[in-house]
Each structure stands twice: as C-alpha cells, then as structure tokens.
C-alpha cells in the first residue's frame, strides 16, 4: 500500500506478458525482412563471369565437295554436270526427263542409260556374230534368226544363261544401290558413280578427270547407237524373218 501510494505504480502481470509478446513478434519480423549477406564465393563467381568476354559462334564450315571420277554434282548444269552431251545436239532431253529433277533421280536415270547401252552393245555383236557362226542350238546351220535363238535354246543352257544374268545383277545391286531396308527404294549410294562397278580387267579406265569424261561420253554415244540398232534388228527380223546381214544382201 505504501509503494502504490508513494510511487503510484500499477503492476499488472497480464499487461507485462502481452507487451513482451508484442516486442518479440516485432523483432522476428525485422529479422525476417533483413536480406542475407552474399557469400564471398558468390561475389567472386559473378565478378569472374562478368570479366569473361563472350566470343561469337563461328559460322559452320562449308561441306567439302566430293568428286567421283573427277565429277562433282553441280545443280546449275544440265544433269548436274554428268558427261554425255555430244555435238551437234549438245544436251538433248526433248521429253524433259531430267528437268527439275533431284540428284538421286538423275543418277538413277544415268545408271539405267549406261547399263542398257552396254547390254545393247553386246546384243548387236550377238546378233551379227550369232546369226553367222556355229551355235549350240543350230550347229553349223546358219545364217539363223537372232530373235528365235532364245526360244530354241535347250533348257539347261537357258537356265545357266539366266543364272549368270542374275549373279551379275546381284553384284551390280550390291555395289551401287541402297539396301531396301536402309533407305528409299530405287536409290543409288551417295558415293557411287553411275555405271562404275569397279570392273576394269584391262585397265582402260583413265585416272585423269578430263580423259574419263571423254571416255564415258564415247561409251554413252556408242550405247545410244546400239540401243537404236538393237531395236531396229528386232523389228526388222519380226517383219520379214530374215537375218540382219541377209537384209543387207550379204
């Protein structure tokens, strides 16, 4: 009573506890909003990253031009620059088979032209020699008619003949064509030059690009002529039933 009267002190335990809680809550809030001090390692990493100059990415290197037998595909040239244009006609494609055609199709067309030309060159020799020399089927009875020879050939000989053709075609397909399961059908290998099977037992293939181009142009010219000649032989013999040299009076 004396203390309350003298100093007028009002001691209330509940009020003191409430004030203590308020002070603690304010202190916690202040600590929560204080930003953490950045570590020295973080400051060093940022400083080093800022000092390093960012170098521009260099442009990709151009794809190297690969040449096959001295030829490199050039989309600006007819048939991508493949040999075969002969004077006086030059590049001759009246039906436009090679117009706006991709490289793979052009190579496939050239492969077909070279192969058919080679077959017809052998066919021309077969007509002229086979009709006028002794044969397995006809013996010494000649001249004979070339278009009738295959039908009159004995079965074992015909079977061996077709087996040989199949083996040759299998070798050609394995050499130059993409396997059916590895890509698009009817597609030549990227590193395959049309008609170059690597078969050169006499060593006639030139090693100089200009000489190779000249030789292939000659082969194509003779092959084209042989295709026309073979078609003419067949039609002529089917019309009159006479041997080729007999039509010439020989």
Characterise this structure.
The protein is an all-alpha fold and 250 residues long. 51% of the residues lie in helices and 0% in strands. It has eight helices and no strands. It has helices at residues 2-7, 13-32, 40-51, 103-130, 149-152, 155-176, 209-240, 244-247. Helix 4 packs across helix 7. Residues 1-11 have low confidence and may be disordered.
Q: How far is the N terminus from the C terminus?
A: 161 Å
**What's the helical proportion of residues?**
40-55%
Number of helical segments with 4 or more residues? 8
Give the SSE order as H and E letters.
HHHHHHHH
Total strands: 0
* Share in β-strands: under 5%
Which overall shape is indicated by the principal axes computed on the Cα atoms? elongated
Taking all Cα atoms into account, the compactness measure Rg is 45 Å
In round numbers, the mean pLDDT is: 80
Q: Helix/strand/pairing class, anyone?
A: mainly alpha
Secondary structure layout plus pairing:
Layout: H1 2-7, H2 13-32, H3 40-51, H4 103-130, H5 149-152, H6 155-176, H7 209-240, H8 244-247
Helix pairs in contact: 4-7
In short:
With 250 residues, the protein is an all-alpha fold. The chain is built from eight helices and no strands.
Q: Any key phrases for this structure?
A:
0% strand, elongated, single chain, 250 residues, 8 helices, mainly alpha, 51% helix, disordered N terminus
